[in-house]
Design a protein that fits this description.
By secondary structure, this protein is mainly beta. Strands 8-9-10 form a three-stranded antiparallel sheet, with no helix packed on it. Strand 2 and strand 3 form a beta hairpin.
Length: 318
């Protein structure tokens, strides 16, 4: 199914899942996006499709994007989304799920939920749909609460394999959203808006509280971590830390604006992926920043700091 297809999702969704006329999942074309099926119908044959700004994601046989939850576990598989959470994020049943080209069938499994039902897993991660996705190709759940992410074919987060950080969806769904902590950025002289210079992969913008800080092409604040080291480059953010702090992807240093290109580099992480460095320090995106212009990660735990135009950390007090 092409990514531009806007067909309403209809297979396997029932009224009490949040789909149907008049609900949060009402089909914007005017008809019902739901049939009279179960609360969360079987996935059928899984497929992989490209969704703009998210990457290559796994969908069910109706084209609905499938998700994973950072507060679940995969070794061993465990679901931590019950009650009201499960109304917004219906669990995908383990029955009648199969892999298609691009998905390793060996990665499909199941986990027993607290109510005794069996939920589909991919790469060990329990699989969900999002109640506000009403069209095939929707991925409105990506980045919700900084803890919900569209699935890649290997069970990892699609957005990470695309090379970005948390895309930033609607607030809610658990996790640290940073709500109420927005410290809006203003453009530095010569920049068009809070996203920095047009066409630049890195820019310096002026923040009311912090002064000049470094942002990526989408206006997201970049951070460094005191437990990392610059020389030799070592990583203090591993394992569960990476659920909250996403390594920034390398950029073309020729497209850096407001910061010396000599400060822009990259380093190979323990998993083999490449990470952007500024003045030899690895830099990260914070999942609690859900909009361009937020600096909710600054001075977190007294260890995480925004970066200034000289590649140094911004002081805690700005």
């Amino acid at each position: 199914m092409p990514a531009s297809d806007s067909k309403a999702i209809g297979s396997g969704y029932g009224a009490d899942s949040g789909y149907g006329s008049g609900g949060a999942g009402a089909d914007p074309s005017g008809g019902s996006a739901a049939g009279a099926g179960d609360k969360a119908g079987p996935a059928g044959q899984l497929a992989v499709r490209d969704i703009p700004d998210v990457g290559s994601v796994v969908t069910d046989n109706a084209g609905a994007t499938l998700y994973r939850f950072d507060k679940d576990g995969n070794k061993p598989p465990k679901s931590n989304c019950d009650g009201d959470c499960a109304k917004t994020w219906p669990a995908v049943p383990a029955s009648d799920a199969s892999a298609s080209e691009g998905i390793d069938a060996a990665l499909l499994g199941e986990v027993v939920r607290t109510d005794g039902s069996k939920q589909l897993t991919l790469g060990g991660w329990p699989v969900y749909r999002y109640a506000k996705d009403t069209q095939a190709g929707d991925a409105k759940g990506e980045g919700v609460g900084g803890t919900w992410h569209a699935l890649a074919a290997d069970g990892k987060k699609a957005i990470d394999q695309k090379g970005g950080g948390a895309k930033g969806g609607e607030q809610g769904g658990g996790g640290e959203s940073g709500a109420g902590q927005d410290t809006a950025q203003k453009p530095a002289a010569g920049t068009g808006d809070k996203t920095g210079k047009a066409g630049a992969e890195l820019s310096i913008v002026a923040n009311e509280k912090l002064g000049k800080i470094l942002v990526d092409a989408e206006g997201r604040t970049l951070y460094r971590f005191n437990k990392d080291s610059a020389w030799p480059m070592k990583f203090g953010c591993l394992g569960a830390c990476l659920d909250t702090w996403k390594p920034a992807a390398p950029v073309d240093k020729a497209k850096a604006s407001g910061i010396p290109s000599a400060l822009v580099g990259s380093v190979k992480r323990p998993d083999g992926s490449m990470q952007l460095t500024i003045d030899c320090w690895p830099v990260y995106l914070f999942t609690g920043d859900t909009e361009p212009g937020q600096t909710n990660g600054h001075n977190k735990q007294g260890l995480w700091f925004a970066v200034n135009e000289a590649g140094k950390k911004v002081p805690a007090a700005g």
